[in-house]
Recover the amino acids of this structure.
């Protein structure tokens, strides 16, 4: 959770904290909820979010559930004379996650006495109604609406995927769910067989 503390100094102070983030868990749940409600027609894997504290286990799961399926889809695309792109997308996604991992895996306290001054200054400015800087719940900020709008915005403006494709995307998402479950069972069976063979 992000905490604001009034302090009479002139700069924004940032302090790292090492306990589990309540706000991050809430955002994760909302992101998952709206990823399922507003899937893109470009979705290639059923959305899921898992926090892991073990780096080796994360690398194993990322390989098993991201890299290998991406490679198999690229082989399929190549065989059907389409441009292979899934490994490239998977690699870019992984790089983006790594870039933000330090900030998403630590709890942060913001001591921002000047933030209150900024909110007050904007409210009293001549054109202050054009700029919303008060993101407090008391002012009506709502994480649920924010994440929903964010997911829809990415779908419409980044992926260029109009909401008219939503029914077909939801059918595709349902198929991906069952494909993923079958793939996971087969993968785990193969790992167990390989392990028993090697031992």
């Amino acid at each position: 959770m992000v905490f604001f503390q009034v302090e009479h100094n002139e700069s924004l102070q940032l302090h790292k904290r090492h306990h589990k983030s309540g706000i991050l868990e809430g955002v994760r749940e909302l992101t998952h909820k709206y990823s399922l409600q507003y899937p893109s027609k470009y979705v290639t894997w059923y959305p899921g979010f898992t926090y892991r504290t073990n780096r080796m286990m994360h690398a194993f799961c990322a390989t098993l559930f991201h890299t290998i399926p991406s490679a198999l889809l690229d082989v399929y695309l190549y065989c059907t004379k389409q441009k292979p792109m899934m490994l490239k997308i998977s690699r870019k996604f992984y790089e983006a996650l790594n870039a933000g991992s330090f900030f998403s895996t630590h709890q942060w306290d913001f001591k921002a006495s000047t933030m209150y001054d900024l909110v007050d200054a904007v409210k009293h400015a001549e054109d202050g109604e054009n700029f919303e800087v008060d993101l407090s719940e008391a002012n009506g900020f709502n994480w649920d609406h924010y994440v929903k709008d964010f997911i829809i915005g990415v779908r419409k403006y980044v992926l260029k995927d109009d909401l008219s494709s939503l029914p077909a995307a939801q059918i595709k998402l349902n198929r991906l769910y069952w494909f993923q479950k079958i793939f996971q069972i087969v993968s785990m069976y193969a790992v167990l067989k390989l392990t028993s063979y090697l031992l």
Summary: DSSP finds six helices and two strands in the chain.
